[in-house]
Amino acid sequence: MLWRARLAEALDAGVRRAVTMLCAGPGWGKTALVSSWAGTRSLSGPIAWLTLDAQHDDPLAFWSDLILSLRTAGAIPPTNSIPEPPPQTVDDDRAFRRAFTAALAGLPAVTVVVLDDLHRVTDSRVLGGLADLLADLPERLRFVLISRTEPAVPLHRLRAAGHLTELRAADLAFRVEEAGELLALQGRRPARPDLAALVRRAEGWGAGLRLTAETPDGYGAVEDYLVREVLAGQPPQVRDFLLRTSVPDRVCGELADALTGQRYGHQTLERLERANVFVERIGPGRWFRYHQMFRAALRHQLALTHPETVPRLNLLAAQWYAGKGNGLTALNHAAAAEDWDFVARLVVERGLQLFASVDRADLIEVLRRIPADRFTDTAELAVSGAMLAYAEGDLDVIPQRLTRARSLLAGRDPAYRAGSDLALTVMECGAVLRRHGEMSRLTTVSSEMLDELAALRWDQVPARLQYRAIALSNKGTGLLWTGRLDHAERYLWAAASGARAAGVPLVEISAFAHLSLLAFVQGSLNGALEHVTAATDVARRIDAQHRPAVALAYLTESLIESERGRESEAEAALRRGLHALGDNPEATLAIVAVLVRARLLLDRGEPLAARSVLRRAGDEAGPRLTAPLLDRLRWLGIAETDLALSAPDAVIARYANRPALPALLPAEQVCLARAYLGAGRESAAESLLTRVRESPDRVSAVSAWILTALAADAHGRASRAGEALTRALADAEPELIRRPFRSFDAARVTVLAERQQWLTELRRPGGEGVLEEITGELPVLGAAAHTAGPLSEREMEVLQYLPTVLTAAEIAENLGISVNTVKAHMRSIYRKLGAGRRREAVVQSRQLGLL
Q1: Domain named HTH luxR-type: which ranges (predicted)?
Q2: pTM above 0.85, yes or no
Q3: What number of other Cβ atoms are within 10 A of residue 80's Cβ?
């Protein structure tokens, strides 16, 4: 017999109180536990054990055997005279109990009375007498009650007074370590994962563990035990109730009534719970569940005895759940009933929002159960087949199935086809238009869908809110790629908030991802990053970090990191994006991934490789792709590679020969201005830069100010160059913009920055600013003036150059040493003089007479 220390300790603690009750169904090891505890009990004093049965429903038998058990245990000394049980009259019975209690008042030691199988006693006289005894127990008398059901004695009073210790099924359940010890006694030592799985299946139920381990057909033995020990002992009406309500995984009173055709389902479930018939309440609500081994046994019995009712019960459950709006559970029961027409109708009504939710994988499993030859039977089945094909990447069959669905809907009454029409439109938008990149058509179809939804009621289309969120997202996506950015932002915001309210998180992720790219195109790195974070947070919450919906967020994150000069982080984000895209990405997203890759190649100084990638992307774009913004971004990428290859005339010619475009984006204007500067057309460049410098596009504004500074410096206008660079630095800092400083004639930008460094006080709170990142000079702050020792001879030589406008490189050239050595001496000078930067060092040196 297994010794369970934690429960033995609980019994030791329990018998310090008046009453300990072990209440659980059959097979939970109640009697075995108390027996093993009694045999090795550490507390002193006798234990009287009385196992009850039907004969103890008589007061005379009960009290006589109780007295006998006390005498047998040695609890009553020979000198103690206990009265005999009375004749069966109320007055004599009360007198006997008073005499009995008085006789036990002088027990020499604490005595424990174990009443096993107390559930077998139902006589009110016996239970009433026991209740009176428990309410006024002698000081040294304790009771341990073992019962399958809670006895009809006023335990609530003992509970309120703190005199009751209770052990129930949850306490008696075997833990994994205990189950291992139990099976080891039977010669079984399963691997830890197998043991844990067995404990989960048995839910810690001791009999289930033992029977599974002892017999070759363990689960068959468990079922036989439950049928004989639990089910057979119930009245016929209750047996039928249990069999029918075992079909769903959980049940409430209303669902039970739907399955049984009866009333009072909730009351029946509560009675079964109180009777410990392997029924437990789920939380504080109205739902109940059966122990999974008991539920499996009931389902098998139902299939054996009434096989014809199983599909009908599943269909009843499906209809009930559908009426309550629980689409996935309804779909599972409809599939179990093999009513494929009903399954398809549920897919149209509820399935598309599930497809965009955390339940997507479960929906796909249901769709896989539909026989393949049924996908052409009805419009709804054709839509279901298209959805399955989309999920499994079999994209070529989708148009065929959608065409079949439309032909089947053609002759249907419009009043009965609204939901199917909408589902078909959603599938067409996602699986055809977005896949091939037909953004103009996507915008038009989504607009029409929104108009149609506005005229429909919820009872006509139960998934109306979900469809609206999807349509808003599709329209916002279409508007983005067709270049209508302001309108796109409005619809994408509405889609994100609508998707969250409607419970379609994949749509919310997609909306935030497209908002992130929109913000990046508009030159707001901080805004783009906020949307990236929103998308990835939702994806992480629903374990969708590798779904295609979040891919664009990762690609935008890569662009942000590139703009901030963090090449390794940009590469990592690109890898995440490519992984999330999968094998069959939407056409627009596939091209964005190519654009990001080309940008990173350009950042690494590989313009030829970047141009090759961009040209290949243009060749691979499908003929149906209509995304003007995407085209413009690709042209912009090609133009940047041309500039990196010193081919400004190619950029000018390309923009001159392009078909009529809307106004150039700020980024396009900057690129063209760079080309004009490279071709010597400065007035044309300045005309563009004038507009961009005050643009809300911060990245382009920074770029414009840098180009202005370079142009001014080339003409010897040092003051104008300094002012422009100062503006570039000031605009770059809040958004952490770094890329333009490194990609626009980096050597000249560095020279300008070094000259500017000692003229400006620009710093970012809490760390080094962009100026220090460009020049590589990280000044030392906070040192006490001239307390770190005198300057060395070489430092004095370098100090003489600090009042000039020479850069560190020019100082190094004059002194004949390396630029890194000059910078090291400059940092040492700053530290010794307690200066924060070059200008402060000059002022401090003059005050100290060093200059």
Answers
A1: 784-849
A2: no
A3: 14
